[in-house]
Amino acid sequence: MPTEPSASRAGRMPRFERRVLLGSFVVALPGLFAACALAWLPWEASLRWAFLVAAAVATLLLARWQYRRVVFPLYTLSGLLEALRQGDYSLRGVQGGVLGDAIYDINALAERLQRERLEFEESSYLLGKTLAALDSAVFVFDEGRRLRLLNPAAQRLLDAERHRLFGLGAAELGLAPLLEGPSARLLTHVFPGRSGRFDIRHAALRSGGRGGQLLVVNDVGRVLREEERAAWQRLLRVLGHEVNNSLAPIQSMAGTLATLAARDPLPADWREDFRGGLELIGHRAEALGRFLSSYSKLARLPPPQPRVVELSALVAKLAKLEQRLPVIVEAGASMAVEADPDQLEQALINLLRNAVEASLPDGSVRLRWRREGERAVIEVEDDGPGPPPSENLFVPFFTTKPGGSGIGLALAQQIAEAHQGGVTLAAREGARGALARLWLPLPQAAAPLASLTRDA
């Protein structure tokens, strides 16, 4: 950074001005001297003219000397300003010269412009890299709706080379309808490079005193397809595992029975072998039927029919239904929610059953409810081993329990989400076991009551 000039601008006359004033006085000295000499000394005519010529020559020489002293520093100043105008911010002037104050200001301006140019180039580079990494297509149009900027995703969407797209109008590119209407909407559209369902967003821009428009196109169909594909893959892995668990012993036992039936004569205990094999086949077929029935139950969950449900009465009823372990009910404040009582009861039964089965034979299970802001939270806490470390806990048919159907958590989550709520299952903090939380939004009329309770 340039240092402050040593002379105060308000304290005394700047050096350059003193230099100009002193030089002008020196240039005037020969003329003043000649005028005084001619006025007071009795010179002859020839001497008078010789003296006048000498004074004129001296004045011209001093004027030339003064011209160089004044103009050359201005040339330096003009060169620095020209460099700034051309965008060259690397030149600096010597601050100790006659134009020290002006050189100081120009040096400070050059450093500031150089710093701002570096920041602008870094920002432009970062913006370019960001736009290139985006999956969303970004278009920028000027006030005449001519394309001025697009990223690689936009180029792929239009399926054309960049230099052929710049300068084309939105109508020529087929994008004019997307710039009309609401600023954010979903629609199905056909682009040269892709077709599907897209999220369309546009906004007004202003640069250099001129207007423009920004258009962002996001292929939500592709994202949804990828998520759907991943969900189906997880579901099919679980379905395949469960079906194979039933078909493998059925196939093995059928082969064993076929080999036994082919023996001649039949062994003495063939009836017991056949009876046991058929019982095993029937048992596995029944298990597979229950599995498919569970799938139908999950797939055909009807829309909820909400009405007012008092949580204290519902939780007390659920605690009495479980006979394998005593369920401790931690009573809370009286609270009512709007929900389908049958579906909510089924969701909580599934959470309670999982907790009891994890706590057997000598653990305990606790049920409680409370208000959290604008929602009611019901918690089921157990002393079992805790949930397994898996991301598939709420995937239908995923289970780690022998003989489990794998729909309990999935059904509870589906019911809660149908009521605009949710379900979580996590390990307890600082203790052994799991904590399942089901939350539902409180009715609108209960919101003021919640705020009064907090204030109290």
From TrEMBL:
<dbReference type="Pfam" id="PF02518">
    <property type="entry name" value="HATPase_c"/>
</dbReference>
<dbReference type="InterPro" id="IPR035965">
    <property type="entry name" value="PAS-like_dom_sf"/>
</dbReference>
<dbReference type="GO" id="GO:0016301">
    <property type="term" value="F:kinase activity"/>
</dbReference>
<feature type="transmembrane region" description="Helical">
    <location>
        <begin position="20"/>
        <end position="41"/>
    </location>
</feature>
<dbReference type="InterPro" id="IPR004358">
    <property type="entry name" value="Sig_transdc_His_kin-like_C"/>
</dbReference>
<dbReference type="InterPro" id="IPR036890">
    <property type="entry name" value="HATPase_C_sf"/>
</dbReference>
<protein>
    <recommendedName>
        <fullName>histidine kinase</fullName>
        <ecNumber>2.7.13.3</ecNumber>
    </recommendedName>
</protein>
<keyword id="KW-1133">Transmembrane helix</keyword>
<dbReference type="InterPro" id="IPR005467">
    <property type="entry name" value="His_kinase_dom"/>
</dbReference>
<keyword id="KW-0418">Kinase</keyword>
<dbReference type="InterPro" id="IPR003594">
    <property type="entry name" value="HATPase_dom"/>
</dbReference>
<keyword id="KW-0812">Transmembrane</keyword>
<feature type="domain" description="Histidine kinase">
    <location>
        <begin position="238"/>
        <end position="444"/>
    </location>
</feature>
<keyword id="KW-0808">Transferase</keyword>
<keyword id="KW-0472">Membrane</keyword>
